[in-house]
Design brief:
The modification 4-aspartylphosphate is found at residue 57. Keywords: ATP-binding, DNA-binding, Nucleotide-binding, Phosphoprotein, Transcription, Transcription regulation. Residues 157-386 form the Sigma-54 factor interaction domain. This is Sigma-54-dependent Fis family transcriptional regulator. By secondary structure, the chain is an alpha/beta fold. It has three domains: 5-141, Response regulator (Rossmann fold), CATH 3.40.50; 155-326, P-loop containing nucleotide triphosphate hydrolases (Rossmann fold, 3-Layer(aba) Sandwich), CATH 3.40.50; 329-454, Helicase, Ruva Protein, domain 3. The protein is built from 20 helices and 18 strands. The chain has helices spanning 16-27, 43-46, 68-80, 95-104, 116-142, 144-147, 162-175, 191-200, 222-227, 244-247, 263-275, 301-306, 312-318, 335-350, 359-367, 373-387, 400-403, 412-429, 434-441, 445-454; strands at 5-12, 30-36, 51-57, 85-91, 108-112, 153-154, 157-158, 181-184, 209-213, 228-229, 241-242, 252-256, 277-279, 286-288, 292-297, 321-324, 356-357, 392-393. The strands form six sheets. A five-stranded parallel beta sheet has the order 2-1-3-4-5, sandwiched between helices. Strands 9-12-15-8-16 form a five-stranded parallel beta sheet. It has a two-stranded antiparallel ribbon with strand order 6-7. β13 and β14 form a beta hairpin. The protein is elongated, with a radius of gyration of 27 Å.
């Protein structure tokens, strides 16, 4: 028999059958379960400081069914006992009320009639969240002095501006929990790098980090890609295949471009996230998984919700913690160290000495609007390294005059020019040895010859 977890769970509901059932079901997993029929009677139990998770009904007065009483009690309990995680008890179909409760501070919701295993899982997840948040508070107290001057650099995540220091302080706190994270920001602001950083700082860092570009997955392949399929489930299903969620078990799954999902895809994803279980396409077996979910988008999800284009319940499942990554134009102090980072990176890549950068060039880089953000800056520095004399980088090497007219990223023409110049330089450095050129560029010889023909090389 599985050993019970030491925890005190409180149920508040005016239905004696619910209290009895809840006590029986939860005592199978947790050491102590208390029950009261009205919130007013719970004070003495809550004041003990032992309760970690509270299941709260939403209506108590005769004839009441709008949930207002429950919403008011959520606010009161959060004010007095912020460390307690609240799971609301609601009737099937009361989705709007459940969403409003989560806005007020509830962690999760369960519907009547209860599914015993799901309510145990919901309470267990809330308990984990409560305990990880307590650990954060303990660590914050211990390391407060260090946090005042936090500067984190991980790969290309550079934060010397106050805007990014604030974001990364938050990332360090959040990384120690299993809370779902939603990353918002323009294209090129580093959402993928931030997701990787949160994973690297988390207790799951030794496990897999699975990145999924939802924008590239068609609706017909959505379930197969994310949840897996059984051999023979469809024409091309030649063998059993696990999906991305199973492959990421124990680690972190990064769902990029979450705003691109169709309504049907959103519904399927919500069901899996909500139940923490999935079924492969063509299979009847239900499989559980344990992943930390980080999602990202450059879309305005709240505006999409208002238009009926994005599910509000999915939004609140994903954004337990929400990050809004600032565009590069709002973090000017980070531009010089980023430029230094990219100069070092590309000088190493192309076998060049690190050049001096003209002060006027830095000034112009800081004045430029960077519509493509970090990604555009990286392309601009790479181009400058390729075109420079190897001694000094001038402002004209960055080609800002041309790109400043654009409202998007560097144009396709500029990227093709960069590719052509790169190929030309590698050919010269390898004295025309095409095998070495292909190897250094990381492409096959057939691809290389196709590009040589495209750019008119003889």
């Amino acid at each position: 028999m599985k050993q019970k977890e030491t925890a005190h769970i409180l149920i508040i509901d005016d239905d004696p059958d619910i209290l009895l059932t809840g006590e029986i079901v939860l005592k199978q997993r947790f050491s102590k379960v208390s029950c009261v029929d009205r919130p007013e009677k719970a004070k003495s139990i809550l004041d003990t400081g032992e309760v970690e998770v509270l299941l709260l009904d939403m209506n108590y007065s005769p004839g009441a069914n709008d949930g207002k009483e429950g919403l008011d009690w959520i606010s009161k309990i959060n004010d007095l006992y912020p460390e307690i995680k609240i799971i609301i008890i609601t009737a099937y179909g009361e989705l709007t009320l459940a969403v409003e409760a989560m806005k007020r501070g509830a962690t999760d919701f369960v519907t009547k009639p209860w599914e015993y295993e799901k309510i145990q899982v919901s309470v267990s997840n809330a308990l984990k969240l409560a305990r990880t948040e307590k650990e954060i508070i303990r660590l914050e107290s211990k390391q407060q002095g260090l946090k005042q001057n936090l500067v984190i650099k991980s790969d290309q995540v550079i934060a010397e501006s106050k805007e990014m220091k604030s974001v990364l302080q938050m990332a360090e706190k959040v990384s120690r929990t299993d809370a779902n994270v939603l990353l918002l920001g323009e294209n090129g602001t580093g959402k993928g790098l931030m997701a990787k950083l949160i994973h690297e700082l988390s207790p799951r860092s030794a496990e897999v980090f699975m990145s999924v570009d939802l924008g590239s997955i068609t609706e017909s392949l959505f379930e197969s890609e994310l949840f897996g399929h059984k051999k023979g489930a469809f024409t091309d299903a030649k063998e059993d295949r696990m999906g991305r969620f199973e492959a990421a078990d124990g680690g972190t799954i990064f769902l990029d471009e979450i705003g691109n999902l169709t309504s049907a895809m959103q519904s399927k994803l919500l069901t899996v996230i909500q139940n923490r279980e999935l079924t492969r396409v063509g299979e009847n077996k239900t499989r559980t998984f344990d992943v930390r979910i980080i999602a990202a988008t450059n879309s305005d999800l709240e505006a999409m919700i208002e238009k009926g284009e994005f599910r509000e319940d999915l939004f609140y499942r994903l954004n337990t913690i929400e990050f809004d990554l600032p565009p590069l134009r709002d973090r000017l102090a980070d531009i010089p160290p980023m430029v230094d980072f990219f100069i070092t990176k590309f000088c190493k890549k192309y076998g060049q000495n690190i050049p001096e950068i003209q002060s006027e060039a830095i000034a112009k880089l800081k004045k430029y609007r960077w519509p493509g953000n970090i990604r555009e800056l990286e392309h601009a520095v790479e181009r400058a390294i390729i075109l420079s004399d190897g001694v000094r980088l001038m402002s004209e090497d960055f080609n800002l005059k041309k790109t400043v007219k654009s409202e998007g990223f560097i144009s396709t023409t500029n990227l093709e020019e960069l590719e052509r110049l790169t190929i030309e330089r590698v050919i010269k450095s390898n004295e025309g040895n095409m095998s070495q050129v292909a190897k250094e560029l990381g492409i096959g010889r057939t691809t290389l010859y196709r590009k040589l023909e495209k750019y008119g090389f003889q």
